Amino acid sequence: xxxxxxxxxxxxxxxxxxxxxxxxxxxxxxxxxxxxxxxxxxxxxxxxxxxxxxxxxxxxxxxxxxxxxxxxxxxxxxxxxxxxxxxxxxxxxxxxxxxxxxxxxxxxxxxxxxxxxxxxxxxxxxxxxxxxxxxxxxxxxxxxxxxxxxxxxxxxxxxxxxxxxxxxxxxxxxxxxxxxxxxxxxxxxxxxxxxxxxxxxxxxxxxxxxxxxxxxxxxxxxxxxxxxxxxxxxxxxxxxxxxxxxxxxxxxxxxxxxxxxxxxxxxxxxxxxx
Length: 274
What we know:
The chain is of the alpha/beta class. Helix content is 39%, strand content 26%. The strands form 2 sheets. Strands 6-7-8-3-9-10 form a 6-stranded mixed sheet, sandwiched between helices. A 4-stranded antiparallel sheet has the order 2-1-4-5, covered by helices on one side. It starts with 7 loop residues before the first strand and ends with a helix. 38% of the residues are buried.
């Protein structure tokens, strides 16, 4: 966990997101309320854990923060700028500051590009540097995430799952973002790889003063990686607190249920290993 600045990096105010859907073979439309009046504060240099069940709205929220979705209502303030009001060109430039790492690196990485090309791709999109400068940057990032530079010509499917996630992290770091969002990025890895990736992210955060959001289902790993926890349920933030305070003084019934389920899960694991 890291020291935080008193000035928030991100402030989300009354954010709502609706999707209009139509059932197959039917003309009538219906509305899905993915987010409803979400309020959230993220301090610069902090790590926030966004926790909740599937369908709670976690991924929709971070996609709004990453400018991949446009909210229906509300505001998203990032470094004093309301992202919702930005035009197309300003959004393009702002996207370099917010990078998203997805759960499945296999589907998130272009299978026809080499490792070096994948890492350099954001630099190409943002028209940054020469070809040689981009290659040097890619090689440096590979070394930083624990991948030998000599593997730059390998394709994604030649890497293991943990190595592919390191490749995804290197790509996300290419533009030196301020905010790094990990959407269930550890859930597909075994415990050993999870631990290694967490150590890597902690090192990168310390070196670069990154602000991080970890999206997760499981509260058990929160105490080791986060400064604060925001609990989502039914498209809303029902509780946001410092980690120690949440574990000792959870107020919302849903948060209390999540905490109450933790000993039961640990007991099941102990029984299976006995």
